[in-house]
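Recap quiz, item 2
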Amino acid sequence: MTTRTHGGTLSRWLFLGEWRAHRIQAGTAIVAIALGVALGFAIHLINTAAFNEFSAAARSLSGQADLQVRGPQPTFDESLYPMLAQHTNVELANPVLELDVALPGNSGERKNSTLKILGLDIFRASDMAPDLIGIPAEDKLLDILADDAIFLSPAAMEWLGVKQGDPLQLRVGTQTITLRIAGGLRRARAGQRIGIMDIGAAQWHFHHLGQLSRIELKLVPGIDRAVFTAALGQELELRGQYLVTDTADQEARIANMSRAYRVNLNMLAMVALFTGAFLVFSTQALSVVRRRHQFALLRVLGLTRRQLLKQILFEGAALGSIGSLAGLVLGYLIAATALYYFGGDLGGGFFPGVRPSVHFDPSTTIVFFILGLGITLLGSAAPALEAASATPAPALKSGSEDAAFSKLATPWPAVVCLGAGGMLSQLPPVFDLPVFGYLAVALLLIGGIALMPRLSALVFSAILDAVTRRGHGAMPTLALARLANAPNQASVALGGVLASFTLVVAMAIMVASFRVSVDEWLKHILPADLYVRTAASGDTRGLRPDETKALAATPGIARADFFRSSQLVLDPSRPNVALIARPIDMADPGNTLPMTGDAIDADLLREDATPIWVSEAMVDLYAYTPGRRVTLPVAIPPPDFVVAGVWRDYGRQFGAIQMRLADYQALSGDQKVNDAALWLEAGVTPEEAIASLKRLPFGEALEFSEPAQIRALSLSIFDRSFAVTYLLEGVAIIIGLLGVAASFSAQALARGKEFGMLRHIGVTRRQILGMLAAEGGLLTTLGIVLGFALGWCISLILVFVVNPQSFHWTMRLSLPWSALLSVAAALLLSAALTALASGRHTVSSDVIRSVREDW
Amino acid sequence: MQLFTRDRTHTSHAHTAHTSCSLARLRIAAFKRIAISSSGFLAICFVATCVLAAPPQFSQVIKGKPITFPRDFGAHPDFRTEWWYVTGWLETPDNKPLGFQITFFRSATEHDRDNPSRFAPSQLIIAHAALTDPAAGKLLHDQKSARSGLGLAYAKEGNTDVKLDGWRMLREEDGRYQTSINANDFTLRFSLTPTQKPMLQGEDGFSRKGPRPEQASYYYSQPQLKVSGSVIRNNKETAVSGIAWLDHEWSTEILDPDADGWDWIGINLDDGSALVAFQIRGRDGTKVWAYAGLRDAHGRFTQFTPEQVKFEPQRMWRSPRTDAEYPVAMRIQTGSTVWVLTPLLDDQELDSRHSIGAVYWEGAVTVTRDGKPAGRGYFEMTGYVKPLRL
Amino acid sequence: MLELRNIGKAYSNGRRVLADLSYTLEAGEYVAVMGESGVGKSTLLNLIAGLDAPDTGEILINGVVMSSLDDDAATRRRRKELGFVFQAFHILPHLTLRQNVSLPLLLNGVQVEGAIEAAEKMLDAVGLNGRGAHFPRQLSGGELQRVAIGRALIHHPKLILADEPTGNLDPDTARDILMLMRTEIKVNGASGILVTHSRMAAATADRILVLTKDGLHPLGAVNSAALHQSG
């Protein structure tokens, strides 16, 4: 017992002494760990808060229902409702018509917005979802049933800038209707923008007569939910295609919507932590090398190997604990701030309209603490083991520093890592997530970095030979000699910068490939001169047949293609699939759709099956391979289709199906369309066409966009969704540079004696600084070259494995040369400056002392 | 697990309670006699009318327009309010008395009649059922409401046929009423057979409710209904028989703005006669209007003017729940005849403040005529509790 | 006290430094070892300290064979029974003098307060009274070696190993240090081995031995010409 106490004292003395002397190194390591943990923790908190709030909000819309019955299409015929309501085992059936209704686009911010409106029967809903009841004014109690009244949640009122008693305009087709805001809701979640109105009024005003979105069921107590679900499913099969789902299905559906996005963002956040680990490794490794003599002395004085190992790990743990704790606090603050100012949506657009607040969750916090601490200990482990296993007697002599890293020079572990990474990248996804893809990325990174010492020894020896033969000056030779002959220390310095630059290169190539592909795709899918719609989105937009005729007949319009888009549910636990009906050139669908090349020959299409073209996600998620015959619930009974080809879709990661508009209208009887693509006659400008279209009776309700505008808007949305990615990359770079600073300053300190000697033999201070800058620059150049090669390999995995497996779309590889070069140049410059700055301190210290000092 | 289940139950009750606050007044709106206690209701309807672009035009009650059967057994959706109100005395096989009440209300709303949606809430159906058991010492009651439509709730025209989910009242071809109520704590299945012609109240069914001529309703009663059927409580079915009274009344505006409450009695007399008497009370408890009609077993009908009808409280009972004081024993004078009502049970108060938001006393009573036992009836008192401030 | 039995040791490059060396050091004896550079003086000290193992033969300290111990056991013996003084002082730069001197006590499990108190006393004894809170960078070379001597003796080891302790010091300081070391070894009742090139230094020991390829011999039994060159 006593031994431990006094060992503890000794341990503390050594640790505090070291820290007092090397505050900057310890500080950078702590900052690196803290930043890594903070980012990972913040992103996790934000995503979790947003996701929980989003699913809670979604859940709050279905109250205390045991089960939900819905159709494969967004709405279904209301005749199912009386049947369910009178079912023996059903205690209460609550019919719901849920619509996203477009707001007339006059104010900029709301332009592309819709308001979620629930049409409810208060007599049923008051028992099922009592929160969703409007509160009318004292003297207008019957507003609850009024045909012109709507009740808005506080967030909706705030968002729309309206109050009780105000009119509310909504866009239905080409018309604008006005409702009266009759009051608030009994209870709504913070940030939840919803409106409630009478179901009869909603059906009428929003042109959904006879239609319901879902029926929520509360079962008679004692009825087995699973048994009933199965029985009801069978019963309903006779009436058409219906889906009976319970809460778990809905949760799964919501989770599936954003899972790939959340996992990918978390992985990205881990990159920062990962880079931090390399930094800890280099800080610890260099600190151990610097203190090699001290440790040897302690071993001679009687410190056992185990005690020494514990001492070094203890120092690492202290760094890790302080860094992790600071990171947790910082991460919490970042999350709280981000949620307060920007809401929960980190640019992915998955969590619109929720205002979550950050929740402290002890278990997650502990996980992130352990992650930060673990990564620090991992970074400390190798240097600690090396120091403990060193033989004390030779270690007391000077000049043995680089030997400390000799173990790192073995190339085999690195080669094994690279090989395993390559193989793992070929494995299929697990639970729809590219688990092996990420593992492969990590292995390539580790392998590449581990191979660094060998490579740098090879490269710098070769350069040194060349330089020596040509007889260049002494200083370049000195710099190169050090890099060539002590390659291990040099590589350690580079670990962090290599890791971060590699990942930046990989991410930049991936994002650029994605962006270029999206841009080309947009060009392909926007061939017309002008696009027309009544609202950007929502369930109430659309043009009636007479309106489409008038549109097509407008002078100056050479051709008008009309689109009908709607939603299908093919699997209740997955998000909706988009269904787009439009004219498609049968002879060559590639004229209309951005085909992947995966298609069956048009001649092979049989007369009896209607062709559909599916997005890549449909192949991955539903196995809709070309030639397969499928049924789609667009009519009752569901008609047969054959998958005629696969097209590329960057807009809908959950799947989309295209069919010919004529087929769709014949099968479904639905004559409405949402959008129109217009080709103009030669000589007619878009402005002229818009002017004449505006003169149509419903012209004021039309929104026009030119392909260039749509492209610009789409790309800006794209960029916004990657903004967080850029931010995380930036932080990874900063951590990498911190690593350069830490290791160069540590080395400069360790080399104080060397510099003192050089100064004694007549080398100027400027020359020493030049040498340091040259060393830093050369090392970084090598890091950049290697990072580029490694990053390119990793980007292949991101582009061809991680993206298709996460989001179900493929893309073409393209390299953003200018961006990469400028990042490389910036990195090079800052690394050289960092090396210089950290050297300046040492060089300016007392020359005489530095020669005399033992260490 | 046990605790959890119990907690859930509490929560859902709490929800129900909250939910119903605003609904309550809506339901009060349709409530016949209770509507009086919420004297602000008319004003509410009136204001709502002003806001609407296309308010429905309701029919008015006009004197001299005859009641025609069987058409007038059915619903009259053009009038704002309508009800079928059955009360009666039952006897179990072991000769224990029970009292019951089954009411279906129809209430037309201001919702735009142009709305073709089958969910359009133009007509609301509200139902109320209660069972008095002196052995249990209290009243069991339940209520339901829904919009009419989709075959789930309706009040059909042409003959009495009212439905609200599992609650139903149907008049068959032979004039017999079948009614079935599946309430929370009890189930009632009755067959009600008329033994007499319908009794037209007031002047051939034109029944005035206030000093102004438009304050009137169409009103007929079916007294001396023979009841057979069963009562199910705690999964135990009891065969019952007895005698009941049905009121069917429809109107658009019946209430005087000064009205604060009312007392109503319908009595099946043992000799086959039937008596209806009511008074509408003003804010200070004074009589705003009163009426009594007596039909003897031979069908001779006597009507009493408001001045000839006097209600005099005999004994008061204070509700421990609401602190309201009800004259549970009442002396009623019609002309020279004196009737004294004795409740089957003092506590027949329906405290529905937390479900439908209304409180009234509705109960089985025995009646003496000039001191001699004469029959059994149902007595209703409203407006004895201050309206809830919401 | 210390017994060397037929010690043999070769470097990893194959050069043989010690061969069949035997010697017995009595308790309380303080000997100086001289010899040509590269003859294996430091290697001999490392072997005695248990920092290195002999290829052949045995080293016994108080009857225990050092070379039979594993690293942990050797380390524990070393911290308990041996004290070291180096030519390059080897004082930990970031610890105060009293912390440096108390290190061996702490390693041997002595209470911190006691260790610090003993260190202060020891600093007094080596002529550095009142400087316990100073850091090594505030001291001259001679003072640093005084600290090292204090550290070597504070835990009352049975054997002090000193490798050229005055190699980095001027003659006057060296003389003071050598006298101090001798005094302290004797006061503490320890034995000592002083490896040195300097005859003057060697003269402060009880006996002088010369290490040659053939073994350890008393001074005079070998040609001392080589020794005159140094010191």
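The first helix of chain C runs from residue 41 to 49.
Chain C has one domain: 28-39+70-229.
End of item.
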